[in-house]
Amino acid sequence: MVQFPYDSKVLAADIKQLADQYHTIKCSSIGYSVLGKPLYELKIGEGLQSIHWNGSFHANEWMTTALLMSVVRSYAKALEEDEYFGSVKARDLYANTTLSLVPMVNPDGVDLFMHGLDASHANHNSLVMMNGANKTFASWKANIRGVDLNNQFPANWEIEKERKPTAPSFRDYPGEQPLTEPEAIAMAELTKRCNFDRVLAFHSQGEVIYWGYQGLEPERSFHMVEAFYKGSGYEPVRTIDSYAGYKDWFIQDYQKEGYTIEVGKGINPLPLSTFPYHYGRVKEICALSLSTPLR
Ligand SMILES: [Zn+2]
Predict the structure, then answer these.
(1) What is the 61 CA–ligand 1 centroid distance (Å)?
(2) pLDDT digit string (tens) for 38-73?
(3) What family name appears in the similarity comment (predicted)?
(4) 124: helix, strand or coil
């Protein structure tokens, strides 16, 4: 079972072990965080359908990283043993899809959440200020500069700029401009480069799936999200009053399928004891995202 704290070091070791054990997994770095930590991308598959998953845009939603790594391990194992992954033979998924996974978009934030000020040589006074009245970093969502990475994308960013915090903060501050932060830039560049057909951004919490943006989402998003609902019980929600997120920008610029998956119910961070419960649902959603044809 997953170890805690699952910080950026544990992730790096986990990725290395996985890539050593399974030759089907390719690993590279798509850029670096503010503090110079690699932003890892794992790839599996040789197919034409390009599917992307990511986790931990938000620091205190770290469990999404551990969940996605467990899912990918299970997929690689199914490939090796020529088993099913979900309802489809893993080798068929491998032949038909190319999976891209960025398990931890915000490693500096995750490490700050887990280790407090010890995690960073950055200005401790400013981190304490950005953290508001909080005694710990348990509510921290932003990157190490106090920018909310999921408010950084050029999709009605100005609306969030107008109503969100005007200075760096543990959450919600959208930055001075869209795409000022290296982690958000790396995700945008990767997405432009890779021509993804379907993207799943994992957050917590709520057990809901946001699947629309300004009516620009393709019709098949509706059918996909219904299948996710049947597989996981996570309620589809077409739109909310929220902009400048990664999936908002993806739907806006590409008019392809983009989903924000809110894992679990309760208060972030989700308790470690609930991991196995979430794992079953997340795995189901992930398997469906690979096995459901795009057209
Ligand atoms: Zn989130």
Answers:
(1) 6
(2) 999 999 999 999 999 999 999 999 999 999 999 999
(3) Belongs to the peptidase M14 family.
(4) helix
